[in-house]
Amino acid sequence: xxxxxxxxxxxxxxxxxxxxxxxxxxxxxxxxxxxxxxxxxxxxxxxxxxxxxxxxxxxxxxxxxxxxxxxxxxxxxxxxxxxxxxxxxxxxxxxxxxxxxxxxxxxxxxxxxxxxxxxxxxxxxxxxxxxxxxxxxxxxxxxxxxxxxxxxxxxxxxxxxxxxxxxxxxxxxxxxxxxxxxxxxxxxxxxxxxxxxxxxxxxx
Length: 204
Hints:
By secondary structure, the chain is α+β, with helices and mostly antiparallel strands.
């Protein structure tokens, strides 16, 4: 595969988008060529990373940090894996495993730092892209935090609006209210007690 298609594909990656073609060409030429066999990890959860990996050909699967059997989205050509590792010391929080032979480029942090020393524009580019990503992340977090509050406020308004007009609510009797639940009771120690044990403990 010639360099030009790889350069074009790399420039579509958000972290590389906006680089000059000659800058991307230089990065591609300095990158390490690697091949991953089926079942081999491109990155491994919990391991320190020192490079970003651009998939050139082949397919891989990204796995949940808490389960090796529940995959996330598939990884294909043009995907950049472990991107932050090429800029800062990073511990991977997920795994990516090759489903078939994967040809890739590894952009090592040492190489990136050396190139940034030669071309300060590269450092400015990455700082700008990371700042943009952090702003997007902050906006998403604010929206996530605000959503429950907005929902709760809406519920309060609904209750006030219908006060005095809602149908009477039949309250549970005292016996029903204190009757043991059919479900299992969870203790603070993380152990479980049966309804009978819970009732006995309450009497004692």
